[in-house]
Structures
1.
Amino acid sequence: MGCNIGTILVTGGCGFIGSNFVRFMLRKYDYKIINVDKLTYAGNLENLSDISDHPNYEFVRGDIADKALIEGLASKGIGAVINFAAESHVDRSIEDPRVFIETNVLGTQVLLEAARKYGILRFIQISTDEVYGSLGTRGSFKEASPLAPNSPYSASKTAADLLVRAYYKTYGLAAIITRCSNNYGPYQFPEKLIPLMISNALEDKSLPVYGDGMNVRDWIYVEDHCRAIELIMHRGKGGEVYNIGANNELSNIEIVKIILKKLNKPESLIKFVEDRPGHDRRYAIDSTKLRNELGWDVIYPFEKAIDRTIRWYVEHQDWWKKIKSGEYLTYYERMYGHRL
Ligand code: NAD
Ligand code: TYD
């Protein structure tokens, strides 16, 4: 089944959430999926090696900021664009913001323009709760909360959201923005908190916790995020913003202790290190709109999904060891060398 969408152009499908989404959709629907991905350090063809021969799947290596490439693809009769492609790591954006603007802002504009030119009716911008900035101890982000990004990463995602809004208001492009909280699950690049901590613990390396470890994130299992995007693609309303979250707030130190306990590793591996500049204290997302209007809910509670996630990293050590032994190591040294 599946509306009259036909072909979906997924961008950034070789990354963490994009690869989970492509696999999820190919299993469930007959849509043709074209995945355009630049294969940056975070894009890994292995993330989709199990479905690379699927008859409904096509991979195109390319940059979303490449107008000729994107317009060429858009002209093929695309029913929906789902834009996952992004530079996604806050720490890297602090080191060098430029590529965040090139991909997250200019790349999104190229996609929006192609959608406008070729009359693509469904355009989903995969944004983030980080556009709302940081919360104190109380409250949660609503769709109408002020945009107040604090890192070059979140500023670039906010700029993209504003372009999406402008394309809706100015040109009537019925694009939709989703703002999800922190994801976890299989195929997440091991520079992000959960896979970094699991893989370091498995290697008996220290676990670098920024500041006092009391920063809070609102964690959602990646497949629940994919299910929300599926629903929004089919039934979401053009011009709207939908927050996505699982009501699952945990401090970083709590997460790290849970991982150590489940892997039977000592807490002495925890190392408090210099804080991230501009480090947002707390994120919490209110997804009432998505729940009430589209009937979405979580099906993977944290307790089960974190077990499943840890098991995946235990069983796929080749996957992350290959990553950690390559270019990633130089990056790791640069980021943590002076901190540890
Ligand atoms: P990721 O870094 O794992 O993957 C990004 C993918 O985009 C990679 O495959 C990369 O090669 C590709 N890419 C980068 N620049 C590109 C370009 N110019 N052209 C084409 N492809 C390019 O990221 P992720 O964690 O899967 O996040 C996906 C999206 O979801 C991002 O837009 C991010 O802002 C958003 N998001 C992520 C989270 C999270 O917790 N990971 C939460 C909310 C929203
Ligand atoms: P991260 O996975 O980078 O996601 P984001 O910054 O987009 O929320 O980080 C999640 C939290 O974990 C954040 O508060 C920063 C913290 N953190 C550490 O304490 N140590 C680390 O080595 C990393 C990568 C993150």
2.
Amino acid sequence: MSRKHIVAGNWKMNKNLSETQALLTALTEKKNTGDAQVIVAPTAINLHAAVTTLEGSEIKVAAQNMHQAESGAYTGEISASMIDSVGIDTVILGHSERRAYFHEDDALLTEKVNTAIAHGFTVIFCFGEELEDRKNEKHFNVVESQLKNALFHLTAAQWSHIVLAYEPVWAIGTGETASPEQAQEMHAFIRNTVSTSYDTTTADQVSILYGGSVKPGNAKEIFSKPDVDGGLIGGASLKADDFFEIVNAF
Ligand code: PGA
């Protein structure tokens, strides 16, 4: 199986410049004993400093978000070429906080995905059901439509730029984690959905990360599942020791 293991830290709106540099320096002092690609996503204003601080390190930097337009009158936004110009080629799109607080829907995410792909970026595409969906046994339908609506117009070749991050909304920042079995069940469903719409090669090659209260204490068990190829880590990515315990769970 050729797909990559990935552990990505989504720092959200945390860490100022000096805190960013301090955490990154601490991360570079840690040893990656496994085979996971490590990615960190600091806030936009610190992306350039992050790239500079991590020069010579294997740790990659990703942006947390990006505007769909190339440039123009979009006060407060950042474009793909701005991200590219500081040496970054990876962007997180569709995070549930962007969907919930900034009203990002499937149509907008389609545009963002297209812009990112046009710039040759890797997209860490987040999606996942809410608690209500799971209670009503709609979680498979919700996940399937989130994927189909924003990603299934891509060609099979373009899928080499996609990393999927399944993040059940009820597990994000709540301390509640999907059980390893629930994660595996959904990841297998996702891979199967990709396989049905594309082909088995595309499905086998896409890395599917799990996100939602991954911690040093539960990472190993979650990552041991065959269709879980890594994690998107929020809270626990803000401490070097915790984050690297998770990285080294592979
Ligand atoms: P959490 O966040 O690890 O703090 O639950 C995960 C995420 O939002 O990506």
